[in-house]
Amino acid sequence: MKAIVCVKQVPDTSGKVAVNPDGTLDRASMATIINPDDKSAIEAALRLKDATGCKVVAVTMGPPPAEGMLRELIAMGADEGVLISGREFGGSDTFATSQIIAAGIKAIGFDAEDIIFCGRQAIDGDTAQVGPQIAEKLGLPQISYVADLKVEDGVVTCKRLLEDGYMTLQTKTPCLLTCVKELNDPRYMSVSGVVDCYSKPMTVLDYNALKDDPLIEVDTIGLKGSPTNILTSFTPPLKGAGTMFDGTDKETIPTVIAKLHAKHLI
Amino acid sequence: MSVFNNTDLAAFKNVWVFCEQRQGKLMPTDFELISEGRRLADELGVKLCGLLLGDKVEGLAAELAGYGADEIIVCDHPLLKDYTTDAYASVICQVVEELKPEVVLIGATNIGRDLGPRCAARLHTGLCADCTHLDVDVDIYKDFLREASTLPEARIATMNTAKVLGKDHDVSRDLKMTRPAFGGHLMASIICPRFRPAMATVRPGVMKKAAFDASRKFEIVKPNFTLAESDIAVKVLETVKAAKQLVDLTGAEIVVSVGRGISKDVDKGIALAQELADVLGGVLGGSRAVIDSGWLSADHQVGQTGKTVHPKIYIALGISGAIQHKAGMQDSECIIAVNKNDAAPIFEIADYGIVGDLFKVAPMMIEQFKAFKAEK
Fold this sequence. Notes:
The complex is a heterodimer of chains A (about 270) and B (about 375).
Chain A: E1 2-7, E2 9-11, E3 32-34, H1 36-52, E4 55-61, H2 67-76, E5 80-84, H3 94-108, E6 115-119, H4 130-138, E7 142-152, E8 155-162, E9 165-172, E10 175-179, H5 191-196, E11 202-205, H6 207-210, E12 229-234, E13 243-246, H7 252-262
Helix pairs in contact in A: 3-4
Chain B: E1 15-19, E2 21-22, E3 25-26, H1 28-44, E4 48-54, H2 61-65, E5 71-76, H3 85-99, E6 103-107, H4 112-123, E7 127-131, E8 133-135, H5 138-148, H6 153-156, E9 161-164, E10 167-170, E11 176-181, E12 186-191, E13 198-202, E14 219-221, E15 235-241, E16 254-258, H7 266-280, E17 283-286, H8 288-292, E18 313-317, H9 323-326, E19 334-339, E20 352-355, H10 358-375
Parallel strand pairs in B: 1-4, 1-6, 4-5, 5-14, 6-13, 7-13, 16-17, 16-18, 18-19, 19-20
Antiparallel strand pairs in B: 2-3, 8-11, 9-10, 11-12
Helix pairs in contact in B: 3-4, 7-10
């Protein structure tokens, strides 16, 4: 049995975000982190390892420095890292990305009892699309928004969050799950994990390693294989500055109320 | 590679809206999308069709038509009673391949965001996630950019064409799908120029619902499809509605939200905000920090990863105003912010900024609003 965890390295959008004059993101000036929902995915896989002794393989697609993140995941307890990386893969939208990652997972090999874990969505794109699209490309059942999980003899039972409650869903392995933060509290790297993380296997899958897979064609990956195109990106204008008041002034609240009333808001 | 949907794009016509129902009840976002879809269908000069899947759901069609649909495509089957990815994706893809819509809109609910990507991957087409603005007509789109972006006029003027694989592509018939990215720091307009249908999931609560017109005429279409128990690999064991009343932030006219500023006395901070909301007939919300700390449940969250609200009055108590939060509330008609820090970013978008301690200001607001209401 094996748990394959798909992880993305993302710019930390909760901190200072720098935007270039042309409206693109200045990634170079931003710190990178492991995508938060993906941490719930890795934790779910590590708990499965704790319970069953299964192997945990962390997979990412990204530029070569993303290997550092995979080492962090190994230090948390993953057994090996797989970096899917190549110039040919650049410019991929979610459709093309899922083609490539699905081909990468096929190269790793997945068996009847395996589970693929993804985070619900990444904080840079917020699409939540790559997980389900990988499942489609691999012909696997998917359960998204997983907030509770039980795995027993190849039967996977999940609590899937809805806005107004939840569904309890059941499927068999192999399957793909996308995890939300409610699922668990991710562990930290262990000291021995940090010491050992450079001695564990790290595989790089480039274009040549994947090109024989039928999913990988000139017009199914990268910019050429992406059905969507960016027409433009832009920053929204700042709203004009409003009126400032002193909270200790007794007249403040009556003045604000009078203004709201004058605007027919109350 | 040539697939069924990238050779003859002109064969694809009509705007479709996937109309999600849960337990036989339509979702509020269906009406928002039908209303928005009406405008897009008119800009394209095509029909607007609601796509309704379920078990004995034909009776819901008239309600959808009243908001602007010309046609309701009804797929009735006992196996479509509860949502499953496998059954719904299978039926939708069959019907799309058969009837060839040009645009498919899906509400970006937890179910819509499960279904959309699976269908787009199978159909080999583009899907834009969680859109907050849609256009077809280029002039209307340009006006939108003039108002909603900081792009220079010279750049906006070039929007009739886009470079697609190195060639100039006329975008006049493409759906322009605009969405926030990077936690709301950037907006991006996406097109799907080479494949049909162009697909979008649309954020609930953003599009405006049209007036209901019970006299609208509509047709019911019942396409052929096949579906068997063996097609469904994930079984639904149970569906549980949350026992407690979930807050309806997106439809609220007044929202009072709390942020990290309540940390010195969380219970009191929440009680004050709730009381203020009650006085105003509003709803209690919170920033991501408040939800992540477990002080309020996730259904209260306003922001990029929570709900988008556009109430008449938004009162932010002790919220610094991270971009993440602003993305979910900056289109409110009037924003009142209370914060101790006069440099808090929330003041950049507040109509009325009150510099002060929320534990002192909120009680004054409660008292004064009460007095105002009593006078009226």
